[in-house]
Write a structure and sequence with these properties.
There is one protein chain. With about 450 residues, the protein is α/β, with parallel strands linked by helices. The protein folds into two domains: about 80 residues, no CATH class; about 300 residues, Glycosidases (TIM Barrel). The longest helix has 19 residues.
């Protein structure tokens, strides 16, 4: 009765390195003389990173997690004595959340990307942003559970959950099941996040032939799903599930995704097309609906390229994908959301801060959990730890919701219960935290 989560790969083979898996749930001066001296030796590197939040000025230099030394002289930024991109009129250089940021005299912030020494526009990452409260504790489920919608509502309320994610296509059988869920959720005052489960493959299993064909398909399924669910209070749609982590879209599943070149240039337009189509299809029915695009691991390379209309080969001027909510999957094997590695082993960065500053929309972690091989006691401790981290950052990092995977997996690999019976350690850890930490 219940789908089981399928991993394409195993767990990490080497300490600190990823063997990634795909989930299927459901981007003037100021101490110039000192800076110039510090930038004089291109080969000099320091061992310890500067404190988080270090700023030039008043600091004369910043050391990042890789030991590179950043300086500012006459409005130009240097790394180990060499210029980094074409910077000018820079008034502030900031080390924050594992990234280097700068602000010009006009007040615009930029963040240093990992590819081609690009500086990408953003907001000040130090500014706290809090989403609207009321849907923070979330859970994943499936449309084909044998539980009645009313039973799902009852189980969620017992765990203090206020939001629930379920996937659906435009198949009438799936849609009818999710409509019934939506009706029950509307009556109960709970939030239903609907994953529109459309991808880059056609009915024969081949990659869709063109961006325009993919767009049309995405538009059709997006408008069909929104038409069916609009009357029942659904306002949040996640447009696609792990589309950056398909055989057709990622070059190698071991890549962390922090570079656009980690992704397939030839098939990129098809992925972009189906994403744009789903968003536009939903908006054609519900102009006020919120649409999310989903990423995994450290896929800011993909997110930045889509947001800015770039291809993995670096070319620009392509259609932009703009979403209302950034959604992310953050399983234990992928690393800590607030200190995630950029190459599977190297220094990490605060992904949630990056998303907040780069895209300016709320973040929903639509899937998170430990690995399937973990014991119940381990999973319970992991749940307590992660909920504490997510909860502590919700008002500073614009985190709208964190959605545990999954309500029932048919066994104890991921589910928090089996056939309606709680699995003690994870269930108790989850409910203990939610009952003592209000979603306000």
């Amino acid at each position: 009765m219940v789908k089981r989560r399928q991993f394409l790969g195993g767990l990490t083979a080497l300490a600190g390195s990823y063997l990634l898996s795909a989930c299927g749930g459901g981007g003037e001066d100021g101490g110039a003389s000192l800076a110039a001296k510090a930038s004089a030796s291109p080969t000099a590197k320091a061992a310890a990173a500067s404190a988080n939040g270090t700023v030039i000025p008043s600091a004369s230099s910043i050391t990042d997690s890789s030991g590179d030394v950043w300086t500012l002289a006459n409005g130009v930024i240097y790394r180990n004595g060499s210029t980094v991109g074409n910077t000018y009129n820079v008034s502030l250089v900031l080390w924050y959340g594992g990234k280097i940021w700068h602000c010009g005299t006009a007040g615009q912030f930029f963040v240093n990307a990992d590819v081609a020494e690009q500086w990408l526009p953003c907001s000040d990452p130090r500014i706290d942003v809090a989403p609207v409260p009321g849907s923070f504790y979330g859970m994943n489920g499936h449309y084909d559970y044998t539980y009645t919608p009313e039973k799902v509502v009852s189980m969620l309320k017992a765990m203090n959950c206020t939001s629930y994610r379920v996937g659906v296509s435009d198949d009438p059988r799936q849609l009818n099941a999710v409509v019934k869920l939506a009706q029950a959720f509307q009556s109960a005052g709970l939030t239903l996040l609907v994953l529109i489960d459309e991808g880059v493959y056609d009915a024969s299993g081949a990659v869709i032939g063109s961006e325009s064909t993919a767009y049309s398909r995405g538009y059709s399924v997006g408008s069909t799903v929104a038409n069916a669910l609009k009357p029942y209070g659904v306002t949040i749609y996640e447009c696609g599930n792990e589309l950056t982590r398909q055989d057709a879209t990622v070059m190698d599943f071991t890549y962390a995704g922090s570079k656009a070149s980690d992704f397939n240039n030839a098939n990129w337009p098809v992925m972009r097309g189906v994403m744009r189509g789903m968003i536009d299809g939903v908006k054609s029915v519900q102009s006020s609906a919120k649409c999310g695009i989903n990423f995994c691991v450290a896929d800011v390379g993909a997110a930045d390229a889509l947001w800015d209309g770039r291809q993995p080969d670096g070319s620009g001027g392509h259609p932009q994908v703009r979403w209302d909510i950034t959604t992310w999957h953050n399983y234990e094997v992928y690393g800590d959301l607030f200190n995630i590695g950029t190459d599977g082993a190297g220094p990490g960065f605060d992904l949630a801060t990056y998303c907040k500053a780069r895209y300016g929309v709320p973040l929903i972690v639509t899937e998170w959990n430990a690995g399937p091989e973990r014991s119940e006691s381990y999973r319970g401790n992991y749940i307590s730890d992660r909920l504490a981290a997510f909860y502590g950052a919700r008002k500073t990092h614009n985190i709208q919701s964190v959605m545990y995977y999954v309500l029932d997996s048919g066994n104890n690999t991921y589910g928090i219960m089996i056939n309606g019976t709680p699995i003690d350690a994870p269930y108790n850890a989850f409910t203990s935290f939610t009952s003592s930490h209000a979603d306000t």
